[in-house]
Write a structure and sequence with these properties.
CATH class: Mainly Alpha
CATH architecture: Orthogonal Bundle
Distance between the termini: 25 Å
Number of strands: 2
Bound molecules: FE2/S2 (inorganic) cluster
Length: about 80
């Protein structure tokens, strides 16, 4: 079983592939959340994350939550997975 894990990744520098099935990076996920894709179903529709094998779902969801926190408490309060 393949496992995708983030270890000491500086999200500001080098893009990291989160979804290998659709070649989606952490930066694309953060940008999509900043552009309004605040729910996992939004990210699935916009980028295709977690729509094939699903192994990226946990990591993508964590990045989604982190990006919402970056946007501020009001955005994080709207967090609906
Ligand atoms: S790694 Fe994202 S759907 Fe397979």
């Amino acid at each position: 079983m393949m496992m995708i894990t983030i270890i000491n990744h500086d999200a500001q520098d080098i893009p990291m592939y989160v979804c290998l099935c659709h070649a989606v990076t952490d930066k694309q996920i953060r940008q999509a959340v900043h552009d309004g894709a605040t729910r996992m179903c939004d990210l699935r529709r916009e980028l295709g994350v977690a729509s094939e094998c699903g192994k990226c779902a946990c990591c993508a969801n964590q990045l989604r939550k982190d990006a919402l926190m970056e946007l501020g408490p009001a955005s994080a309060a709207r967090d609906v997975a």
